[in-house]
């Protein structure tokens, strides 16, 4: 069986739960790392705005997991004690199951994603994770340009279903997660947005990333809700 990837978002509604979630950024690792079948994981906070954001969203946290097979992921979500603690303290949880399509770059020195060989030709959905560690001496230039680079997302992109900025370390280690209706929507954003093209050009010119990764996925299952609904329910079953 092929490995699969999951991305889970948790919403914490009040001060007590937010303080608990913040503390788990240190203490939960000892429990998550022992999960059977877990090959790679990242526990992350999130940004207040869409895409990259210098301002944290204290109410939303994310858990990325790469699993040996789908059953290992289901066992974690159904039986793990640490996941039950997150469930009990959060008001919402939303998980997207994904198969890697194409991947390039490194995350903490490795690329944890292996392209799948059993993709569904009738499923057009595309999920994207971009992740980067910003060079310390380029932080000012990077964050100075971010508001401009985010304008297309703020205006609204055709075919964009959902996006959220996440990351391991505020300001320095940042990532984005997005889901698109199809590949054409993603390509339209990448190639026809002047701000995005300029961002790509500056990335090559300034070299502001110490480490970066870009991975496309095919979402194939989703559970839970976000803002009272499942964003992928109109597109997927299960």
Structure description:
By secondary structure, this protein is α+β, with helices and mostly antiparallel strands. The protein has a single domain, classed as Alpha-Beta Plaits (2-Layer Sandwich). The protein has helices at residues 15-27, 29-32, 70-79, 81-89, 139-149, 151-155, 183-192, 194-206; strands at 4-11, 38-46, 60-67, 92-105, 126-134, 160-169, 173-180, 209-224. Strands 1-3-2-6-7-5-8-4 form an eight-stranded antiparallel beta barrel. The longest helix is centred in the N-terminal third of the chain and has 13 residues, at 15-27.
Derived from helix and strand composition plus strand pairing, the structural class reads alpha+beta
**What general outline do the C-alpha atoms trace?**
globular
Total count of helical runs of at least 4 residues: 8
Give a short account of the largest sheet.
8 strands, antiparallel, barrel
Q: Briefly note the CATH topology name.
A: Alpha-Beta Plaits
The appropriate CATH architecture is 2-Layer Sandwich
> According to CATH, what is the class?
Alpha Beta
- Sequence of strands across the biggest β-sheet: 1-3-2-6-7-5-8-4
Measure the end-to-end span. 20 Å
Mean pLDDT score = 88
Counting DSSP E segments of at least 2 residues, the number of strands comes to: 8
- Strand/helix succession: EHHEEHHEEHHEEHHE
* Sequence stretches where pLDDT stays below 50 over 5 or more residues: none
User: C-alpha Rg, in Å?
Assistant: 17 Å
């Amino acid at each position: 069986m092929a490995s699969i990837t999951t991305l889970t978002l948790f919403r914490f509604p009040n001060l007590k739960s937010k303080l608990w979630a913040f503390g788990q950024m240190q203490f939960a690792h000892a429990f998550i790392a022992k999960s059977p079948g877990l090959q790679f994981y990242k526990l992350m906070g999130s940004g207040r705005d869409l895409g990259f954001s210098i301002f944290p969203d204290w109410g939303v946290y994310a858990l990325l997991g790469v699993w040996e097979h789908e059953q290992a992921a289901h066992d974690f979500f159904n039986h793990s004690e640490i996941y039950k603690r997150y469930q009990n303290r959060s008001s919402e949880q939303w998980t997207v199951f994904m198969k890697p399509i194409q991947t390039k770059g490194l995350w903490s020195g490795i690329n944890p994603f292996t392209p799948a060989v059993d993709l569904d030709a009738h499923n057009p959905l595309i999920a994207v994770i971009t992740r980067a560690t910003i060079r310390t001496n380029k932080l000012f230039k990077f964050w100075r340009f971010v508001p401009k680079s985010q304008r297309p997302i703020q205006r609204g992109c055709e075919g964009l279903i959902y996006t959220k900025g996440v990351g391991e370390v505020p300001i320095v280690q940042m990532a984005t997660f997005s889901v698109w209706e199809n590949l054409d929507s993603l390509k339209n954003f990448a190639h026809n947005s002047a701000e995005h093209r300029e961002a790509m050009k500056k990335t090559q010119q300034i070299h502001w990333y110490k480490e970066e990764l870009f991975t496309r996925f095919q979402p194939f299952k989703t559970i839970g809700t976000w803002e009272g609904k499942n964003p992928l329910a109109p597109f997927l079953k299960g």
